[in-house]
Design a protein that fits this description.
- With 151 residues, the chain is of the alpha+beta class.
- The chain has three helices and seven strands, in the order βαβββαβαββ.
- The protein has a domain of 105 residues: Gcn5-related N-acetyltransferase (GNAT) (Aminopeptidase).
- Keywords: Acyltransferase, Transferase.
């Protein structure tokens, strides 16, 4: 199927719907701790449209100068609606985020995912992300897996 990945603003209505669906899925898997906000700190968002319908999204937020990884980007809220899964859309979203982060001068991208998301783990590992030492709030969360990829 034909698809387009494009940058969207934080206030985009279709993006908001996708983020709500992503949060709902995370809460379903992890309980209330699955819900966290990313909009205020994200540098950019992308949305994947399949035949003029928004079916996937992702974001990159930037590690601040006071963090363990200043200047790196962090992949957040990768999500594809269930009926559109299995078509390579998550891989296309991730590639778009990597390209945007590379163009912005980030030396690496980092991300976290949970043990209850084996499909995400498989995607990230197949795209060259390697296990990384947990940072920030993930340090004491053994069910969280952190990954990094040099750009």
């Amino acid at each position: 199927m034909e698809h387009i990945v494009e940058e969207r603003s934080a206030g985009d209505a279709e993006l908001a719907q996708l983020l709500e669906a992503a949060f709902a899925e995370l809460v379903g898997r992890y309980g209330a701790e699955g819900r966290s906000q990313v909009k205020d700190r994200a540098r950019y968002f992308v949305v994947l449209d399949e035949e003029r319908r928004a079916v996937g999204c992702g974001a990159v937020q930037v590690f601040g100068p006071e963090t363990e990884h200043p200047g790196d980007g962090e992949v957040k809220r990768m999500y594809v609606v269930p009926p559109a899964r299995g078509r390579g859309y998550a891989r296309a979203l991730l590639a778009a985020l990597e390209g945007a982060a590379r163009s912005a001068g980030h030396p690496a991208l980092r991300l976290s995912t949970g043990e209850l998301q084996p499909e995400a783990i498989a995607l990230y590992e197949s795209c060259g992300y390697v296990r990384a030492t947990p940072w920030g709030k993930y340090v004491d969360q053994p069910a969280v897996r952190c990954y990094a990829k040099s750009l």
